[in-house]
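Input for the complex:
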Amino acid sequence: MRGVDWEVVIGMEVHVQPRTRSKMFCGCAIAELNAPPNTHVCEVCLGLPGVLPVPNQAAVEACLKTALALNCEIPRHTKFDRKNYMYPDLPKGYQISQYDLPMSINGRLELGERRVRIRRVHLEEDTGKLVHAGDKLHRAWESYVDLNRAGVPLMEIVSEPDLRSADEARDYAVELQTLLRTIGASTADMERGQLRAEPNISIRRAGSDELGVKTELKNINSFRALHRAINFEVERQKEVLESGGAVVQETRGWSEAEQRTFSQRSKEFAEDYRYFPEPDIPPLELDRAWIEELRAALPELPSLRRSRLAGQLPVGLANAIGADRELADLYESAVAKGAPALATANWIVNEVAPTGKLTSGANLAELIRLVDGGAITRDQAREAYLESADTGRTPAEIVTEHGYTQVSDESELRVLAEAVIDANPKATADFRAGKKQALQALMADLRKRAPHANPKAANEVLAKLLG
Ligand SMILES: [Zn+2]
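Predicted:
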């Protein structure tokens, strides 16, 4: 089988914790990451006898908004089901999930040229967490269970196997995160487990329509890990098939430490879970008027905003700004206050995004006027930006208060440049002998003497005197 061209086929299951204050079926508050174990639990999420679960409306709303943003159909009726299995992190012995009547079906997410079909978006509850003393289960002498997470709402977003590479799978997950944040359905922070991507991967001979045997990957907690895990798994499957073996359908974990996947357990099939309708929650009939209200209230979605921004900006900048709703809002509000588009976009990507601090559009527009007009240096503008973001004061006030100025006056710059030339005879001679890069050494000395000199104007004066 060597020399075969393989096609990679990837579907994604993404679990997302919707932004809610309380758990899926009880009033327990969502625990902070560092909360002491088993402090956010009650009779309902511990599965004690005689209690009744009540669906969380905020979770239903987040799920519907996500489904609508993914162009899903919302069936008239939906219900919850019990998925039965025994595991120590599952106190009830079953998980309340959705089986044959999910909250939404048949959506899509546009990923540049590729359209990824969404099979369903449904709601369920999370499990607790096991903590193994000694790091790994087979070496642990004691295991502990923390049920703070048991019963936390989860949306499961299932795609069809429409992705064809690790790059596409990563782009899909990133786009989903942007979308969830834009519509306010989730903070979708991967490192905090609020967005968990589980790709299922198979390979097949190029040109074939049949699906190969797939493996599902877990324990992935960054986009980088997602990309690496998929590439590792694809290579592993190729080796298995090319040496005459068969891929086993199973769940495999990703080891960040060893940068490889390892077998966790053979994959369960649906019949193993003995699904049946949750008898304690009546089927939901979703109010159509409410759904239309939610649809109408959706903000502009990232793909649309990006294509609109791409009409004003180079594609790279449009994508960088369009990927973050807050940055995009800041950009548009500064431009609406008269700031030039390109300078504003560059400033946001290079100076605002790394600080994570935001100011108003009016303040940013003012700042860009000051720095673009040569009144202050870029370093001063950076300082003024941070102070403005922290205090809410205007850049003009801050600049005046600190006495920020930039020397652009030609006669002042000429005095400076003459002093620099006198002090650096070698670099001056080198430059005059044709070594153009000697100008950089002279400029460096000038800026050391006068940090507030306007670099562009100083450069011109220096070049004129040398020429
Ligand atoms: Zn509870």
